[in-house]
Design a protein that fits this description.
Helix content: 55-70%
Number of strands: 11
Shape: extended
Strand content: 5-15%
Order of helices and strands: EHEHHHEEEHEHEEHEHHHHHEEHHHHHHH
Distance between the termini: 26 Å
Largest sheet: 5 strands, antiparallel
CATH class of one domain: Alpha Beta
Length: about 575
């Protein structure tokens, strides 16, 4: 649910603005309207300071620095030089220069070994320095202004800058410098990162404080400042006493939708774990219903159906406990231990009901106890050839959509009035009423005559809401035309929405089949020899790990889609609210 807010308007002398904001910061519960971007040079300066600190933190996190980058670039160059000089071994450049001063011109050559012609030694003084299967390195000596022929000229290369041993000294020196620099960075990361984090939070707190100050409107020739803030109603009693101590005049009002108050969600411990999913789409506006309780149930169910494997559920439970206890630290999953455990429990229960664990069909496994068999759903829906999982996915989808339409009708009536939402009520009555009539007729609750009367009643009332009174006060012919267009959109949209839920069955089936395929591959290599257990274990470990990761990805993305698109669209959810963000230390 959305926690109710109280609106506070403060009037104070502009000279007391800084102290006033400091006092609100101490209270830690008042959300002051802020500027959404830097408004002047001062705020830009604070942002630049924060950006500098963040850059340092990013560099430490990546274990790099400008100095280390420079050393590594130099090291890369020297390594290339060393690789080029290595075939030539150690030589004296002074000796080469001395020979050249005596009129002997030394040339360096490199050519593939297949193309090297030993006859060249009879044409010109030639010395092979190094040869392997790929290349041959050799030198030639010319005198008296003689020239190389075309073949030798084409394979001539530049003389090495230095001998290999001299370059190796520089390479070793740069490698030692890079290692020392990296050691210092890691030492600084361990020692300085907490300090930089606190400094960054402090600077961002100053920016938050400053932007709250410059967001104040001024009155009486800038002598007075007027602030508007919001705080939860549960804090009213405490804040009234605290505001009496402030050097400011305070006006207290009940927050209304037009005030656009910030949104603070208030849920039980279970639903609170799913508030981050609501925030991913957008916080509700003040007059909307908090979708988190619905999301918490259906996202959990959808995730478990997409996974559909009790064995994988047990792995998630263990992983969630390890992350929650701090035994396993994975950056992006830190703080999600409880949520992962909850998802694992649901996956285990649904996997047992559907009869799958680590790709094994538990319905046919002889070692599964009979009492557990009795808890599993049959493979086919009774009286049909359809898989139970597919039918169950569609049933869950219909319930999800009906709930969305119910929420839309109720909330729109509350926000805009019952007269303005007759069309929504008409569609709700038609769809939900039609489903109830069908179930009661198939179940023998309604007689044929009662069914006929119910269809006429539901159809007639729905027709009035959808076609005649969808917009009270408007020309009836326009209403009928609008109703026909709405009928086309709703009919085609609902059909596509319902079919979207088959993905729950498809993903669960795909994960189970892929897990079963890895089990089959493992059994194919398993023999009587003990040595075959090693490839068997490797196939199962690698295969099920990959399958688990892919199943988790699909089980996260597709339930999000079903909630964000199908549910939010049919419930009329806007998600345009601003998150509650009070001034605090």
């Amino acid at each position: 649910m959305i926690e109710r807010m109280t609106k506070y308007s403060f009037i104070l002398l502009s000279a007391d603005k800084e102290k006033f904001l400091e006092d609100l910061t101490e209270l830690g519960v008042v959300d002051i309207t802020r500027s959404s971007k830097p408004v002047d040079a001062a705020s830009a300066s604070i942002l630049a300071e924060a950006a500098g600190i963040k850059k340092q933190m990013a560099a430490l996190a990546a274990e790099t620095s400008d100095e280390l980058v420079k050393i590594r670039e130099e090291l890369q160059i020297e390594r290339r030089k060393y690789a080029a000089a290595l075939p030539w071994g150690d030589f004296s450049k002074d000796a080469i220069e001395d020979l050249r001063s005596r009129g002997l011109d030394i040339h360096f050559h490199q050519i593939s070994t297949k193309r090297f012609n030993p006859e060249w030694e009879n044409q010109v003084p030639l010395q092979v320095v190094y040869q392997d299967k790929a290349n041959t390195y050799f030198t030639t000596v010319l005198s008296d202004g003689s020239k190389l022929d075309a073949q030798l000229l084409n394979c001539e290369i530049s003389a090495p800058e230095a001998c290999a041993s001299d370059i190796k000294v520089r390479v070793d020196s740069l490698e030692a410098a890079a290692a020392e620099c990296l050691f210092q960075i890691r030492e600084a990361k361990e020692n300085d990162m907490p300090m930089l984090q606190k400094e960054y939070e402090s600077v961002m707190g100053r920016l938050d404080h400053y932007l709250a100050g410059v967001a104040a409107s001024s009155a009486a020739d800038n002598v007075l400042s007027v602030f508007v803030g919001f705080a939860p109603e549960t804090e009213d009693a405490r804040l009234e006493k605290e505001f009496e101590k402030l050097d400011a005049f305070c006006i207290k009002e009940v927050a209304r939708e037009e005030d656009n108050p910030p949104i603070k969600l208030k849920n039980n411990k279970f639903a609170r774990e799913f508030e981050r999913i609501t925030a991913m789409y957008g916080m509700p506006v003040y007059s909307e219903a908090d979708p988190t309780p619905v999301i918490s149930i259906f996202f959990l169910l959808f995730f478990a159906m997409c996974m559909g494997d009790a064995g994988y559920g047990l792995v998630l439970i263990l992983a969630g406990i390890a992350i929650g206890k701090g035994w396993l630290k994975i950056g992006m999953f830190n703080g999600l231990g409880t949520l992962i455990t909850i998802l694992g429990v649901a996956t285990t229960v649904v996997g047992l009901v559907l009869g799958t664990a680590f790709g094994i069909d538990l319905r046919t496994a002889a070692w599964v106890p009979e009492w557990l068999h009795s808890c599993m759903l049959p493979a086919k829906f009774p009286g049909t050839t359809y898989d139970y999982g597919m039918v169950l996915s569609i049933i869950v989808g219909i319930i999800h959509l009906c709930l969305a339409m119910t929420v839309k009708a109720v909330m729109f009536s509350k926000r805009f009035g019952f007269k303005e939402t007759l069309s929504a009520w008409g569609w709700l009555l038609l769809i939900v009423g039609g489903i109830v009539i069908a179930l009661c007729t198939l179940g023998g609750v309604f007689s044929p005559e009662a069914t006929r009367i119910a269809i006429i009643a539901v159809g007639g009332l729905s027709f009035l809401g959808i076609f005649l009174f969808n917009k009270p006060g408007r020309n009836p012919l326009i209403n009928i035309g609008a109703g026909l267009w709405d009928t086309y959109q709703t009919a085609t949209g609902l059909l596509g929405d319902v079919l979207s839920y088959i993905r729950l069955y498809a993903l669960g089936l795909a994960g189970g089949m892929l897990g079963g395929a890895f089990n089959t591959l493992g059994n194919m290599v398993l023999g009587d020899s003990v040595a075959t257990w090693i490839p068997y274990a490797l196939i199962l470990l690698v295969g099920h790990t990959l399958n688990l990761l892919m199943c988790c990805l699909g089980a996260f993305v597709h339930p999000l889609r079903l909630n964000f698109l199908e549910y939010f669209k049919n419930s009329g959810y806007e998600g345009m609210g601003a998150k509650y963000n009070p001034l605090k230390k």
